[in-house]
């Protein structure tokens, strides 16, 4: 296994810096991926067709340089949780440390 192949499984990490390239609708689809929803469920929630969801997913994967839905799901999950942590601020223990 070459050094480039060694980290191919973690390609989704680099995708996080490219999320600003997504359209508003692509971002909506991207964030729903974090829940592991099927295309039809995403379509129903956004009032679009499943074919349109597939088109958005293809665009998302191209723009974020991802090669699988799993990578897109992982990137989405981390993206959502990073945003939640940023909004709530640092967590402190009960004893103030």
From TrEMBL:
Keywords: DNA-binding, Transcription, Transcription regulation. CDD domains: LuxR_C_like. It comes from the Bacteria. InterPro entries: Sig_transdc_resp-reg_C-effctor (IPR016032), Tscrpt_reg_LuxR_C (IPR000792), WH-like_DNA-bd_sf (IPR036388). Residues 15-82 form the HTH luxR-type domain. This is Response regulator transcription factor. It comes from Micromonospora fluostatini.
């Amino acid at each position: 296994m070459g050094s480039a192949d060694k980290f191919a499984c973690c390609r989704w990490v680099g995708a996080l810096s490219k999320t600003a390239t997504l359209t508003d609708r692509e971002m909506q689809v991207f964030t729903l991926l974090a829940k592991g929803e099927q295309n039809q469920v995403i379509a129903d929630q956004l009032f679009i067709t499943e074919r349109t969801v597939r088109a958005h997913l293809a665009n998302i994967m191209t723009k974020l340089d991802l090669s699988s839905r799993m990578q897109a799901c992982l990137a989405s999950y981390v993206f959502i949780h990073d945003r939640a942590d940023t909004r709530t601020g640092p967590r402190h223990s009960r004893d103030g440390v």
